[in-house]
Design a protein that fits this description.
The chain is of the alpha+beta class. It contains three helices and six strands, in the order βαββββαβα. A hairpin with a 5-residue loop joins strand 3 and strand 4. It comes from Micromonospora coerulea.
Length: about 120
Amino acid sequence: MTRYLISFNDGAMDHIPDEEMPDVGKASHAVVQEAVNAGVWVFGAGLERQRASVVATDGTVTDDPYPETKEVIGGFSIVDVASREEALAWAAKIAVACRCAQEVRQLMPDPETDAMLRQADRR
């Protein structure tokens, strides 16, 4: 199985009237429940609109995104599926529920971290 990041940009849902947001939330949670039931859901969340704090390698903290940053993530889901096609199918369901386009990117495998997590689960 391969993990995929499904995300949308901050502001992508701004076109949705406030009175329709409960319906969007309900539809989104239905897709999450479907993904949980299918055993592919890893994690997901919407991000608060706020300035980013950037911590440099020397520990210096800057309370703004990098100046060249034009777009920031507004929300994301991580699914663990057998193929890119399956990830795209989940992204399509999320796009309908959230009423906005979704970006799909494969996460790099990390066998060492996976081994750490399996070890922690045994405790």
